[in-house]
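Contributing new records

If you add data, match the layout below exactly. Sequence lines come first and carry their own label; structure lines follow with theirs. Keep one chain per record. Anything else will be rejected by the validation script.
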Amino acid sequence: MTSYQFPDTFRWGAATAAYQIEGAATEDGRKPSVWDTFSATPGRTLNGDTGTIACDHYHRYEADVKLMAELGIRHYRFSVSWCRVIPDGRGAVNDAGIDFYKRLVDCLRDHGITPHATLFHWDSPQALEDRYGSWRSREIAQDFADYCTAVVTRLGDRVTSWMTINEIACFTHMGYAVDHDPPHAPGTRVRRSRDVWQTSHHALLAHGLGCQAIRAASPGPCSIALVDNPAVTVPLTESPADIAAAQRALHTCGANGGILFPALTGAYSPALLEQLGEDAPIVQDGDLETIHQPIDALGLNIYTGTYVRAAENERGYEFLEFSDTYPRLNMPWLWIVPDAIYWGVRHLRETLNRPDLPVFISENGCAAPDRLTPQNEVLDTDRILYLRQYFKSVHRAVDEGYPLHGYFIWSLMDNFEWAWGYDRRFGIIYVDYSTQRRFPKASFHWYAECIRQRRVV
């Protein structure tokens, strides 16, 4: 029997994103992001919800940091709002926006919590969408790099852990689409599938130029990571045949071959390029060298996975569909596949040939139909069940010697869940949006005990 004990050096944390929690959408010089515009467009979000107020974290960050300290985390991942720092996307820096992040980071450090800053978590400035179509243009890569320089120059004395971009596939492949309205800002229809792949290529360029900008601007040593949400292929059985099938399938599952592969190996997956044919993005000379920047760590956002088994077809594998009775939590895609964390980490070594690369789980968690009891409790035992199994998968990767060094739960608190508005709750702290009161859930106390004992309890 194992006690699922973690090493003392393992880093436990929690994660949030600016547009989902900050609110204060028009205060202190901030201008609209594409998500302000998207969510204000009728029919784009559930119930017409927007992030205008969200969790009002902009005004309540001190109380929220105290809750983090009560939880026992020593690491907090948050994102910086581009349109709060450079409201027009390029040009003048808004000192009031920078000052908010200085106050937040100083408060974190005063409570013994290390800040980990994501420079882009989906809220690109609307001004750049108006100017050149944001991610449809190569121009955005340089504008992003200039934004990185502005932030790191001003916060680099306080923050040494940087993440460039969060989940490229989401704001590109879900933000642009052919023949239908995509569910993600900017929500733009394009003519060809190649145009969609071109947006993710431009985001990769932004990551590469951003890495260079951070290193040049940082006043001292720092860590730079990319955060990806890979479509994790999980072997149905851990037989040699199914493991080999899962490794081959990683190339063509989701957008892996066109995002994770070029970022970590310097080349698009040949299997993906063959599959895309004329829909493959245009790659200019020097692009792959820019994209394949050395990074100090990789953040993996993993919630679910895809089962794969060996098959007697030309690919040698097949993806398996989930049955209607397979367990999932409160999102249509949130099938419970705990082994996805283990295999997500293992694929870095065996499939992408990057055994050298430190990794952390930058997001993991679940939505549950949480209800506040008359006693002001949220008894989210379904979330605890989910987390307990995923923590065991984290432990397996650590126990087998993979360089997995930390875990950030998603999310610290309930928040604006993008196109789902405020209907779906991922937090371990319940937010009553009508009063902005916070109520730690049962999962909050369970996670605190895991951190205290450094094991899966």
